[in-house]
Design goal:
Shape: globular
CATH topology: Metallo-beta-lactamase, Chain A
CATH class: Alpha Beta
CATH architecture: 4-Layer Sandwich
Bound molecules: zinc ion
Number of domains: 1
Largest sheet: 8 strands, mixed
Radius of gyration: 17 Å
Distance between the termini: 22 Å
């Protein structure tokens, strides 16, 4: 299977300036999954030469625009221009149903054409077209946010989504071959609701994926993400890289990195 980063940026200012792209992550296996389609997802798909129409499922971990902005347009693609009812839309309660003043992220019109709508609660397992997925707990300003763990044939790919560190956070990542970690700030410069590099080191002392990928960089991470990744690798012994826009990772027996910067 293949992991394609349609953006490595995150947080309000990186998103508003588009210093890094924010189109989310694709998983291409038997089915094609789009995870957290932030602003630019549809543009980045076109630039990467990927047909949005081949999307089978869209996951939105929470109701912040850097994670959901292009969800409706992805649903339009998934439903072949709203002409058929097909595909899965799965997300946090805020994303699927709406909670207080945030969400839902799809209009009733868009939701009506999705074959399966799934509200994900932490700890819950779902199967989408034979792919088993577990929703993981987080600690984020959208309290219904979920991390995700996808059990592909080639192994488990886990994604922290946005969260701050909390005791036990590592449990959800224990099986992961590849762990994608949203780390918005470097070193110990933590802000509420998010991970910084020091938190990542703590997590990777407990779990040992084959590859850790730092992702979702705020402004202070943009120029130093590679250095932060090297530092994490040195401290933990876990192979760690910083995501790049349009980076592709092929997960087979080995994990191969193809850097495609466009
Ligand atoms: Zn975010």
């Amino acid at each position: 299977m293949e992991i394609i980063f349609l953006g490595s940026g995150g947080g309000r200012w990186t998103t508003l300036t588009q210093k890094l792209r924010t189109g989310g992550i694709r998983f291409h296996a038997e089915k094609q999954v789009h995870l957290d389609p932030g602003p630019g997802a549809i543009v980045n798909l076109a630039q990467a030469g990927i047909s949005a129409l081949r999307t089978d499922a869209v996951f939105v971990t929470h109701s912040h625009p850097d994670h959901y902005n292009d969800a409706e347009i992805l649903v339009e693609a998934m439903t072949r221009g709203m002409r058929t009812t097909r595909g899965t839309f799965a997300g946090s309660r805020s994303a699927v149903e709406g909670v207080k003043d945030i969400g839902p992220v799809l209009s009733q019109y868009h939701a009506s054409k999705v074959a399966r709508l799934v509200t994900l609660e932490p700890g819950m397992r779902v199967s989408v077209d034979g792919l088993s997925i577990k929703a993981l707990p987080t600690k984020h300003s959208d309290p219904t946010n979920v991390g995700l763990s996808f059990a592909f044939e080639e192994g488990v790919i886990a994604y922290t989504s946005d969260t701050e560190y909390f005791p036990g956070i590592e449990e959800g990542y224990a099986e992961a071959r590849v762990l994608i970690i949203n780390v918005i700030r470097p070193s110990n410069r933590r802000i509420p609701w998010h991970l910084c590099t020091e938190d990542v080191i703590k997590i990777l002392h407990e779990v040992k994926p084959e590859l850790a990928i730092l992702n979702h960089f705020g402004m202070t991470m943009i120029d130093i993400a590679d250095r932060e990744a090297e530092h994490v690798a040195k401290k933990t012994g876990v192979k760690t890289i910083a995501a790049k826009d349009f980076m592709r990772i092929v997960v087979g027996e080995d994990i191969k990195l193809l850097r495609e910067v466009q």
